[in-house]
Amino acid sequence: MTTAWLFQVDAFAPGPFEGNSAAVLLLESEPEEEFGLQIGAELNQPATALVWPEGEPGRFGLRWFTAHGELELCGHGTLAAARVILDQGHPVGDRIRFDTRYGPLEAQSAGELIQLRFPSLAPHPLKDGGLADAVRALLPVPVTEVLRNDLDVMAVLDSPAAVRDLKPHWAALRELPVRGLIVTAEREDFAGEDDIAADDTADFVSRFFQVATGTEDAVTGSAHCALGPYWIARLDREPLTGRQLSARGGVVRVALDGDDVLLGGEALVMAEGVWRVPVTD
User: What whole-number distance in Å separates Cα of residue 178 and Cα of residue 169?
Assistant: First the structure.
């Protein structure tokens, strides 16, 4: 019977049981389409990363699946995959190159963090009407700005407390013509609200709601491809630290390098074992 190594990883996690959970399956070669869909449904994780070597040292194929299908881009699944590869003996400091359907991505160790190189997905402001009005209508709080990029729409709120306490209209959320809804606010408004986040180094906060499933994501690395450029431009400094205010919570460090966003985070391997169902090459 064909076997493969299977790992459970908490990504963008300051500690155990925080951040976003991902499964990582190390394969010998790229699997067939059906297997990715089956393993995503079987493991039922926020992301299951399938990883296989691409011939040259340090280069790997990477795809991400959930119980609902394949993901176009996934930050926490990439971070989890990088953590596993580093633990398998990849030289510290050397770049890991991932070939994905979205495009080439990179990761490397950076002290206590792993740093991902993702494309910048800086959002642009939306005029009133259309999608901007739809977003305001489903959020029962004041919205100071609505923006979007190719993947998501983003609403800027007036305080971290508004982000933390937000309860969107879920039925209306499912009608948005985007992958997800990002809500965010600057951290300077945290004064007197230490219960929002123990990490007093955060520069901004966010939450992310998935349109297709009508659920909230714990920590969304790819959303920070929009959050990073937006807040770096607005605050005029970098690197910045973002805290995602989901129930599990997580921390993402962001910086810009040309047309790329550098996403830094910690990842903890919580379990490892063997997958024993035959893998079709």
Answer: 16
**Quick one: pLDDT at residue 81?**
97
Tell me whether residue 87 is in a domain.
yes
pLDDT number for residue 278: 65
The total number of structural domains that make up the chain = 2
Residue % of the chain over a pLDDT of 70? 93
**What separation in angstroms does the CA of 18 have from each of 10, 25, 244?**
7, 21, 11
Q: Pick from 248, 199, 204, 256: which is nearest to 225 by CA?
A: 256
pTM of the entire structure?
0.92
Domain match, 128 and 253 both: yes
Domain that holds residue 42: 4-117+265-275
63 in the same domain as 79: yes
pLDDT digits (tens, 9 = 90+) for 95-124: 999 999 999 999 999 888 999 999 999 999
Domain harbouring 21, CATH code: 3.10.310.10
